[in-house]
């Protein structure tokens, strides 16, 4: 492996690790704390709808990082593919990462924000519940795919 590509690989792996950490932290810490504000504040200061609006802003900002990750994964893995350093598993996992990150940032988030802008009643519909459940599943698949892509690339880099 050439020195510059080795450095690029280290930066890429660190960035993937940061994004995996951000995704896990947002789902495992930020969401439960935000939706449990009465537990932390001692009384119900915010409604569930207001808590959801705050949480959405956190996820919108996560979407910016995911967009950067989409670009990084596309460029890095695309370069590896072009150089003949690919296999079916890495290619498949790369496609899953790209698809789930794009779905979250460009399908789920805009639709959730749009429904929230219609008011509290729009967030209490079956459509919103299905959209929200789909985004939760998408993020879980994304986290596993990022971790898998990291492991596959670390394995290759450590040879």
Overview in brief:
This protein is an all-alpha fold and 159 residues long. The chain is built from 5 helices and no strands. α1 packs antiparallel against α5 and α4 (88-117) runs antiparallel to α5.
What does this protein look like?
- The structure is a single chain.
- The chain has one domain (3-157).
- The protein has 159 residues and is mostly helical.
- The chain is built from 5 helices and no strands.
- The N and C termini lie close together (10 Å).
- The longest helix has 35 residues, at 48-82.
- It has helices spanning 3-34, 37-41, 48-82, 88-117, 126-157.
Q: From the alpha carbons, calculate the radius of gyration and give it in angstroms.
A: 18 Å
Task: Work out the helicity level.
Answer: over 70%
Oligomeric organization of the protein chains: single chain
Report the count of strand segments. Answer: 0
Sketch the major β-sheet.
none
| End-to-end C-alpha gap | 10 Å
Which segments are poorly predicted (pLDDT under 50) over 5 or more consecutive residues? none
SS field, number of helical segments: 5
Instruction: Categorize the overall geometry.
Output: elongated
**Rounded average pLDDT:** 94
Classify the beta-strand content into a percent band: under 5%
**Count of individual domains:** 1
How does the helix and strand content classify structurally? mainly alpha
Helix and strand run: HHHHH
Question: Topology of this structure?
Answer:
Layout: H1 3-34, H2 37-41, H3 48-82, H4 88-117, H5 126-157
Helix pairs in contact: 1-3, 1-5, 3-4, 4-5
């Amino acid at each position: 492996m050439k020195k510059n590509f080795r450095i690029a690989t280290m930066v890429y792996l660190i960035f993937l690790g940061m994004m995996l950490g951000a995704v896990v932290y947002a789902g495992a810490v930020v969401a439960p704390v935000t939706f449990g504000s009465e537990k932390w504040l001692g009384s119900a200061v915010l409604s569930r709808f207001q808590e959801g609006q705050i949480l959405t802003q956190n996820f919108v900002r996560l979407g910016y990082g995911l967009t950067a990750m989409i670009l990084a994964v596309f460029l890095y893995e695309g370069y590896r593919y072009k150089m003949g350093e690919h296999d079916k598993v890495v290619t498949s996992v790369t496609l899953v990462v790209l698809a789930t990150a794009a779905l979250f940032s460009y399908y789920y988030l805009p639709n959730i924000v749009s429904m929230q802008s219609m008011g509290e009643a729009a967030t209490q519909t079956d459509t919103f519940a299905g959209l929200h459940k789909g985004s939760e599943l998408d993020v879980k698949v994304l986290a596993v795919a990022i971790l898998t892509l990291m492991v596959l690339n670390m394995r290759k880099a450590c040879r």
